[in-house]
Amino acid sequence: MDAPAHLPPPPAIADDWALFLDVDGTLLAIAGTPDAVRVPPGLIDALASLQQRLDGALALVSGRRLAQLDALFAPLKLPAAGLHGLERRHADNHIDPPTPPSLLAVFHRKAELVAERYPGALVEDKDSTIALHWRGNPHAEQALRELSEAALPWLHDYRLQPGDGVIEVRPVGTDKGDAIAALLDEAPFAGRHAVFVGDDLTDEHGFEVVLDRGGMAVLVGNRQPSRARHRLHDPAAVLAWLAAGA
Ligand SMILES: O=P(O)(O)OC[C@H]1O[C@H](O[C@H]2O[C@H](CO)[C@@H](O)[C@H](O)[C@H]2O)[C@H](O)[C@@H](O)[C@@H]1O
């Protein structure tokens, strides 16, 4: 995997694309807390126009819950994978809900106890996954990582998903790559040129799938290493690129 600094920008969006878009760090600039993100002017209009231009083949692929995505991008209800692929809304609008876990509640209580020792650290409960954030207090990183790693032996069938200022505990067996692969098997995504735009480690699963299918992976920012072969500088550059193709 190359260093991303010299990667070219993606070409202009074409009519035959299936476009998959990560949310935090890609469409939305990173904010201090999950609730503090702001949807920039023009983004919702650009997404709506692009969805029409691509005959519906545009989907969000996010670590957030579908309900959060709908609130952020209202009035749009786009095809989407939430919780890193655990929840899915297909183009025909039906939803595959996640299965609620049991032992995760125990882990949640333990995480709250650790987070209380580090003001600014945050435990985000998403029902089927739990994200432990240290952006508000970097001193919490080690304790939150250690807590998560120690939980894996008893939190059966769960795995860790590291991210930007966060570590997330989520069930094994689904990731953004699985979600994109599933959408690419059905209308209106099937048969199109797959393109995924994302910034974080969790997006590498999606990059792998689109590249395996002859598509294109677009990294946002400078994280390295990455499988991506195209790059956009930041969410503002993503918006300009989307708006130009809308
Ligand atoms: O897959 P994504 O759409 O990129 O979602 C990944 C996680 O995004 C959110 O956390 C991240 O963004 C927050 C707001 O900018 C930031 O405060 C936090 O440090 C980041 O990790 C969201 O809260 C998570 O649930 C998502 O999994």
From TrEMBL:
E.C. designation(s): 3.1.3.12
Transmembrane segments: none
Keywords associated with the record: Hydrolase, Magnesium, Metal-binding
Enzyme class: hydrolase
Cofactor list: Mg(2+)
Pfam families: Trehalose_PPase (PF02358)
Recorded metabolic or biological pathway in which this protein acts: Glycan biosynthesis; trehalose biosynthesis
Domain of life, per lineage: Bacteria
Recorded catalytic activity of this chain's protein: alpha,alpha-trehalose 6-phosphate + H2O = alpha,alpha-trehalose + phosphate
Matching CDD domains: HAD_TPP
GO molecular function: trehalose-phosphatase activity
Its job: Removes the phosphate from trehalose 6-phosphate to produce free trehalose.
Family membership: Belongs to the trehalose phosphatase family.
Protein name (database record): Trehalose 6-phosphate phosphatase
Organism the protein comes from: Novilysobacter erysipheiresistens
